[in-house]
Structures are given as structure tokens and as C-alpha cells.
Amino acid sequence: MPATPETRPSLILRLRDPQDEQAWAEFLELYQPLIERLGRRKGLQDADVRELVQDVLVSVAGAVERWEPSPDRGSFCGWLATIIRNLTINLLKREARHPRGSGDSDFQQLLEQQPDPHCGTTALFDLEYRRQLFHWAAERICHEFQPSTWSAFWTTCVEGQPVDAAASGLEMSRGAVYVARSRVMARLREVIERRQRE
Prior knowledge:
With about 200 residues, the protein is mainly α. It is built from 9 helices and no strands.
């Protein structure tokens, strides 16, 4: 899997048609959780997070027609990360101009200790995108496996439980846990790579 997963070119082209509800639903399914997590990690409240999602959709809808893939302009994900970052900064600046009372005299000190919103935004976007892509793929394939196979994968690879503990808890051999993990990871990789090729 590449360092920065790519959005399928066919989806980007379909987004240029504002009437293509299926393309926009697919875009939302993939990116809305990512946008929400990024907004929350930057300290936005729920209402502001919802506003951020809407602002991103409006910006993408208005500009996707002009976006063209090119090595010197960067990837679609990079372009989208820039939109999200800029709109998040706008929301944070607006909040700073119109602060809400918190009832806490130490609140300003807490705000001053927060990291710069520009720092690491692209890396954070990439991480959140890969996380969202993983969850998207996992949701699609989990029904393809026996519950014990899926549990062996999930408890060891996602939850980080040691293989011995998972094998004992699932009443499986260590070898069976390794085989289960391998089968699920291969299928996940296949689904993610196919999506990226389409």
C-alpha cells in the first residue's frame, strides 16, 4: 500500500457531476469520518465539526472540476487535506474572534498550550485516511470469515493482544491464529489495492 492512499480517479471524475448521488455518497462514506476526526483532534466542538464537513463538501463540489492530477500539483488526498486544514483554521480563527465562555478561569492557559494547528496536518490527514480506508475495507470483508478467524485477526492485529493470549482465549492453536491473521490481512490488502486501482 502506498504511503498516501489515493482516491480512485473514476470517483474524482464522477464528483464533477453534482447530480451523481452515488459518487457523493461514496465520497462521504470514505471521507466524512476522517474529516470529523481531524476536526475533533483540532479541538472543534460537534456543531463546528458538522459545519466543517459541510464546508469541505461545498469546497470540493466547487473546485473538483478544476482539479487535475499532476506530479507537481500533488495528489487528490493532498489537495483535500489542504482544503480541510484551511477550513479548520478558518473555523478556529472565527472561534478565537468570538470566544465562548467556558466558566473555567484556566481555559485560556489550556488553549495556549495547544499545538499549532498547522503542525503535522498533512501527516495527520494521511494517518486518518489510512485508518478510515482500513475500517471501510474491514467492514466489507468481516462477513467473509468465520467469527473465530475474524476474532483472531482483530484481537491480535487491531487490539494488539499477544498471539498466545488470543489463542488461549479463542481456544485455538498459535498456528491457527497466525493462519487466521494472514488470511484476513491478505484479503484486506486485496480489497484496498483493488479500490485504489479502480
